[in-house]
Amino acid sequence: MRERAWRKEGQEPDYRFSMANERTFLAWIRTALALLAGGVLLEQFGVPIGPMSNLGVPAAGLAVLAGCLAVTAYVRWRANEIAMRHSLPLPITRLHAVVAIVTMVVCAVLAGAMLWR
C-alpha cells in the first residue's frame, strides 16, 4: 500500500499524539458498530415494543448514523493527523451534537412506542 502524500508533509508528530488520535478513531468506530448493532436489534427483536412500521424508521436512523460515524471517524482522524504535522490547532466538529441529537430522537421514539403499547 503506497503512502499518502499528506503523510510526507510537515513534521512527524510525537507518536503519543498519533496513537491517541488512533485510539479516538477506534472509539468512534466502536460507537458506530454499537449504533449499527442497536439498529439491527431493534429491527429484528422490536416487535413486542410496537409495530414494525413504527420501528423501522429509528432502526434505519441508527444504521445511517453508524455509517456516517464510520466515514466521519476516518475524515476526522486524517484531519487531526494533518493538523498535528503542521502544528495547527485541531479542527472542531459538530459530530458530537449530531450523535447526541439523533440518539435522543431515537430514544424518544422508542419511549413513545413503549408507552403507546
From TrEMBL:
- Outline the extent of the DUF202 domain: 16-81
Short name of one Pfam family: DUF202
- Keyword Transmembrane helix (UniProt): yes
Q: Where is the protein found, in the record's own terms? A: Endomembrane system
Does Transcription regulation show up as a keyword for this record?
Answer: no
Question: What are the record keywords, sorted?
Answer: Membrane, Transmembrane, Transmembrane helix
This protein's major location comes to membrane
- Signal peptide residues are none
Cited InterPro entries: DUF202
Question: In what way does this protein cross or attach to the membrane?
Answer: Multi-pass membrane protein
Give TM segment ranges.
25-43, 55-75, 95-116
Protein name, per record: DUF202 domain-containing protein
Give the source species.
Ramlibacter aquaticus
